[in-house]
Amino acid sequence: MVTFLPSRPGRLADVPSFARAIGGAESNVACALAAAGHRVRWVGRVGRDGFGHHLVETIGAYGVDVTAVGRDPHRPTGVYFRTADDRATEAHEVVYYRAGSAASAMSPATVPYGSVADGRVLHLTGITAALSADCLALVRELTAPRPGRPLVSFDVNHRPALWRDGTAPDVLLELARRADLVFVGADEAQTLWGLMDPSAIRAALPEPGVLVVKLGGEGAVAFERCAASSPTPDTVTTVPAPRVDVLAPVGAGDAFAAGFLSATLRGLGMTARLRHGHLMAAAALTVPGDVAVPPRRAHADRLAALDAHAWGTLHLGPGWTGRDQEGPDRTGDDQEVRTP
Fold first, then answer.
1. How many other C-beta atoms lie within 10 A of the C-beta of residue 267?
2. Which SS3 state, helix, strand or coil, does residue 329 take?
3. What is the distance between the alpha carbons of residues 272 and 46, in angstroms, rounded to a whole number?
4. What is the DSSP string of 294-311?
5. Closest Cα to residue 283, out of 268, 269, 297, 264?
């Protein structure tokens, strides 16, 4: 979707103007991964209209392959407006205009499996499944067991406003259990399934090889299935989040997934995967839009390799990545990385 960002804090009724940007969980992840140096394809559908052209051109400018994006001549590109407040607060407002949009009409017929089959990882979210019955059928098709499928990554991404029929708990649990790698917030699990403790969430989702439970500002815990010969079913890794001076609290979840997936694709260990997730989330939290250019790989690797004490004292603020939104390096790339 095209996202309209408010020019100042306050109610939507009081905001006088908005800046155009791009939004959408899967495209956010795609852009962040491409900016981090990976080969990425975004598959979806947009309207054959100005907003659709803007989305495809902007996402493509990040280095994402957009050749598999369909253009619907009969349905518009979705848009949404949001306030500047944290999504977790009552003050946050978001208004979607995507009923009948090109994306909501995606289906197994319009998004063939062949367009995603050759990737190492296929990343999906629960948002797409909520858009329509056809979209749910598509996500079910893409998560179906089959020989040689990519590693299926699924971010639960529960958006209550999209689930008016009360089916979210069952459907999102079903889809998560079909994935190889799952991201879920403890707050989401509490809302959906009445589960807050990470171990209880893992008990409800035993199938994925890796389950990442996000704990907000406290950090994240990952459950990784051990070999069959191991005396314990999982290796459990917990990594606290660094302290972040938040500029805009939107897009962090998608950025975390991108950082974790980037480290996974590079074959890094679990602690490094979680730390790279936190670092990518910090990049998103310290810019105004949904997508942030990540730190240079060497910079992120150096921070991810800090000892436990140094990581625990890490403090990140706007400008910490040393790169602006267009990607060039800044001088003094550590100016906003502070450790006592």
1. 8
2. strand
3. 36
4. PPPHHHHHHHHTS-HHHH
5. 297
Token readout for 239 is: 């990594």
Where does residue 280 fall: left (phi above 0), alpha (psi -120 to 50 degrees), or beta otherwise?
Answer: alpha
**Residues β-bridged to residue 243:** 315
* Residues 38, 246: Cα–Cα separation, whole Å: 27
| AA letter at 68 | A
Report residues of the chain scoring pLDDT below 50: 326-340
CB of 216 closer than 8 Å to CB of 186: yes
Structure-token match 């980037």, residue found: 262
DSSP 3-state assignment of 285?
Answer: helix
What tens digit of pLDDT does each residue of 60-84 get? 999 999 999 999 999 999 999 988 7
User: 189-233: per-residue pLDDT in tens?
Assistant: 999 999 999 999 999 999 999 999 999 999 999 999 998 777 889
Q: What is the enclosing helix (H) or strand (E) of 190?
A: helix 186-193
The count of other CB atoms within 10 Å of the CB of residue 313 is: 13
Instruction: Give the integer Cα–Cα distance in Å for 16 and 288.
Output: 17
Chain-centre distance of CA 275, in angstroms? 15
Task: Give the residue numbers marked as catalytic.
Answer: 254
How far apart (Å, rounded) are the C-alpha atoms in residues 143 and 36?
A: 26
Which pLDDT score is estimated for 250?
Answer: 75
Strands 219-225 and 234-240: antiparallel
User: Which segments of the chain are extended strands (E)?
Assistant: 2-6, 18-22, 45-47, 70-72, 79-82, 94-97, 121-125, 151-155, 181-185, 210-214, 219-225, 234-240, 243-244, 315-316, 337-338
